[in-house]
Amino acid sequence: MKFNPLIPELYVLNFQKSLHFYTEVLGFKIEYSRENPQFAFLSYQNSQLMIQQEDDNEIWHNGKPVYPYGRGINFQIETHETEQLINNLKKVNYPLKMDLKESSYKAGKDFYAYKEFMVMDPDGYLLRFSQPI
């Protein structure tokens, strides 16, 4: 298995609820997991992230997390199946933060266009799924 150079690790309030959301609803794959503390390394297409049950280990925190976690950040996750993801979320009546829309971004002289939507995970982390057009 190849590890990406940057892999976010997200602390979660309810590990089983978050694991279900990422794997059963969004389709992430469990690459490996541990029990104490509860932890899972997940992958989705070319993206990777880790989730871990919230604990009191102050070494890994800048302060006690407060819901919604991840304030001030959103994770852009490239996908080739935005419509399928939205259908999966709708099947379980999971709310979207932003409906599917087309966006374009300028980078130097180039423009990049995406179909994208946003959803908050059970802990308040904002996920932006983007499909290149």
Distinctive features:
133 residues; alpha/beta; 2,3-Dihydroxybiphenyl 1,2-Dioxygenase, domain 1; four-stranded mixed beta sheet; 2 helices; 42% strand
How much β-strand is present in the residues?
Answer: 35-45%
- Compute the number of strand runs: 8
SS element count, helices: 2
Strand order of the largest sheet: 1-4-3-2
How would you explain this protein's 3D organization?
The protein has 133 residues and is an alpha/beta fold. The chain has a single domain, classed as 2,3-Dihydroxybiphenyl 1,2-Dioxygenase, domain 1 (Roll), CATH 3.10.180.10. Helices cover 16% and strands 42% of the residues. The strands form 2 sheets. It has a 4-stranded mixed beta sheet with strand order 1-4-3-2, with helices on one face. Strand 7 and strand 8 form a beta hairpin. The longest helix is centred in the N-terminal third of the chain and has 11 residues. The two termini are 29 Å apart.
Question: What's the gist of this structure?
Answer:
With 133 residues, the chain is an alpha/beta fold. The chain has helices spanning 15-25, 82-91; strands at 9-12, 29-34, 39-44, 47-53, 74-78, 98-107, 110-120, 126-132. It has a single domain (9-56, 73-132), classed as 2,3-Dihydroxybiphenyl 1,2-Dioxygenase, domain 1 (Roll), CATH 3.10.180.10.
